[in-house]
Design a protein that fits this description.
two-stranded antiparallel ribbon; six-stranded antiparallel β-sheet; 8 strands; alpha+beta; 26% helix
Length: 141
């Protein structure tokens, strides 16, 4: 699958955007390709169509960031520990856990407040991007 880009915006929100970049074989520089952008969009739509349950499609799309960066699909079992009284998907950044996997600290979180009426992956497919809002942490835990 192609990729998406996560960007922490100046207003504190997190943007997930379809990436249509390819490397020019002559110059080696990255450039935008509408064909690549459309391919990534189709790949995301396929994941969305073939994935059932929760936000597993979103987590599959963001897997690279979860494995290679400091982002995490924040588990609902930890929501209460940061004061999140929601069922919205939450993405966390710089999460510290002890040896047992218990939450010790989380630097930032973003949530999707429209989860009851809009699917974030459908919004990504429709608009090429989706915004997760900055979540205020109840305490630094």
């Amino acid at each position: 699958m192609g990729s998406v880009i996560l960007t922490q915006l100046s207003d504190g929100n997190l943007e997930i955007k379809i990436d249509g970049s390819i490397r020019d074989q002559k110059t080696g520089k990255w450039k935008f390709s509408i064909a690549e952008w459309n391919k990534v969009k189709v790949d995301i739509a396929d994941i969305h169509k073939n994935t059932r349950g929760g936000y597993n499609d979103l987590w599959d799309i963001l897997e690279w960031y979860f494995c290679n960066d400091e982002y995490e699909a924040f588990p609902e079992t930890d929501y209460i520990k940061i004061g999140a009284l929601t069922s919205a998907p939450i993405i966390a950044y710089q999460v510290d856990r002890d040896d047992n996997g218990d939450l010790q600290n989380v630097q930032k979180v973003w949530w999707y407040p429209w989860y009851e009426t809009k699917d974030p992956v459908e919004e990504l497919i429709k608009h090429g991007k989706v915004i997760f809002e900055n979540g205020e942490l109840e305490e630094s835990k």
